[in-house]
Each structure stands twice: as C-alpha cells, then as structure tokens.
Amino acid sequence: MDGAAASLRRLGSAGLHPTPERIKLGGLEISKVEPNRISGRDLVGRPQPVPIKDQGQGRPTESPFGLSTPKQTPVHRIKGVYPDRSPLPTVGGGEGVGIVHSVGSAVKALSPGDLVIRFPYIQGSWQTYIVQEQSMWHKIDKSTPIEYAATVSVNPVSALRMLDEFVTLKPGDSIVQNGATSITGQCIIQLARLRGIHSINIIRDKPGSDEVKERLMKLGPDKVFTEKELDVKRAKMFLGDISEPILGLNCVGGNAATLVVKFLKQGGTMVTYEGMSKEPVTVSTSYFIFKDITLKGFWLQEWKLDQAKYRDWIDYLLALARAGKLKYDIILMHPTKRLLNDFHTALEKAMGKQGSRGKQVLKF
C-alpha cells in the first residue's frame, strides 16, 4: 500500500496512529509486497500466501485467499480506536476464507484444495496469499456457501456467544436488542428463534424504515420497532403477551441503549458490544437501585476464545447456513480489473457512508 503505507509508517515511527485528519482511507492503494526470507522453521511470507507452517523442514502451506471482508474493525485499528495497536505499517483484514494451495511435509490434517478459514482477529486477510502455522486454520465443508464461510468468524460467533455467556436463556424467555439490522443483530434474531426465545428488536429512524422492518420480519423476530416508536413512558406496553426480556444487547449506545434498558425485567442484564453512535451509555440511577440492572461488555477478541470450542461454534453456524437456517445480507464484490475502485466502494459501504447495506465481501 504505497502512499498510505508511507503515511502509516511515519505515524507509527512517531508512536501515533492516524486520525481522519492525518490520513484519508480513500488514499489506500494495493501494491505487491516482496517475499519474506525464510530459514529453518520460519513461516514463509510471500506477497500473497495462505496457511500452514511446516513443523519439519520449514516449508509451509500456501493458499490463495478467496474472499475477505472490508469492515469497520480494521479501520478502527488504523485510527487507534482499539486498544490492540498493531505495529505499523500492517496488512488489514481479520476474517476471510481461502483454499489450501500447498502444504509443508509435516502438515497432515490439511491438503491442497481444502477450504479453510483463519482463527479470528489475526490481521492480514487483505492479501492474495497468507502463510501461517496449521493450527491457525480450520477446514470446513466444501458445500458451504463461500460468502458465509468468509464472514462467519466474528459477527455470527459473537451473536452465538452473547446468547450463551451472560444469562441462562430457556424457551419462552425473551431478549431485546438495538442495531437489529447489523449482521450480528440478524444472527441474534435467527439463533434466538431456533431456541424458542422471543426477540424484541430496535432499529434507527431512517427513511425506508418500513421496508427494513419488513425485511427483518422475514428472519423471524417477534417485534421490530424504530427508536421513535418507543419514545414513550410505557414502552413495555408494546410487549403484549411476551415476557419482559432478561437479556439486552447494545451495539449503538446513546438513546438506543437507554431503550434497551427500559425493556429489561427485574435483575436483567444489558451487554454492550459496540458503540456505533459514538454516544455514551447513560443509565438512570433508579434502574440500578430499584431494578438491579447489570451492565456488562463483550469483545470477542478477548472473550475466552478456546480453539476447540471456536471450531465447534464455526461448524455449528456453517451447518445452519448450509441448511438455510442462518442468513444475513451480503453483497459480493468482484474487483477484477477495477480492484481499487471496488475496494473503496466496499469500504465506504462498510463504514455506513452509503446508508444501511449488507456485509461487503471482496473476492480476490
């Protein structure tokens, strides 16, 4: 990444991370990278390789990286919003799917042609090839829709974990969430429905909200409201015969988070996993004193990521996708000769600069 990388390198050497004033994402360029030199058991780092380090003679697996997703997380890393500040310059991208190209002599679990995904939150998927030790890769069923394989490792896994980790939910219970149009929100709706759990969903007030509601209702939620519709003193009257939610999920902050808290039952828990509005979460003292509300946070990167369990979660979610029981909005980009233009378009959509859009997936 020529010009952008130079700017990032200068900022990194100064101990700074770029802000929108320091570097414009629209200036990112894609360029070839010289291969790394290897010795012994080191990883091979070609300009563009995918998995697997040899445990014997230092010869790894290489896989052309098939699909990767431009999203806000790498951009937040560039801006220094996240606490895990990678050394700069760096290659972005934390999820994707690839096909094994070649393997080292000690690699037995994977073979050329296998479809694989990476362990999450390892940067570097925005390249044609990656080389890594075999434990960092997970083989998946080749009948898996490729766009779901490329996007399963963060948002769907987060949805699954948040439904399991904070409260004990049983059939007939209910949850409430804002940001229901997000990929995580769409997954929460469907995973809850499969377990017999009711979901109350809050979306932002934007033009076309009726169409958004209609689209979400096809996923099986019990209720979908705009924030404005809930701007009343007794929002719980909208629940009807649905029980008060024991779990609330917040990815917006500000007033949208307050609405989630209003719905919670006595002793309920709200989990915050994102702050898309960049507004603080403000909760009235009375909710703590009289309703014993609990507030918690969730960040998948730091959340008990046992590799064996993670593989089970991936297999479970992709089985649902293959069965048509887990769906979410995806827009597949085919960069071909217009790679840079499509990349910039996808990045703008991922950052919400072109309204509510599906998840952007770039095919390399």
TrEMBL record:
This is Enoyl-[acyl-carrier-protein] reductase, mitochondrial-like.
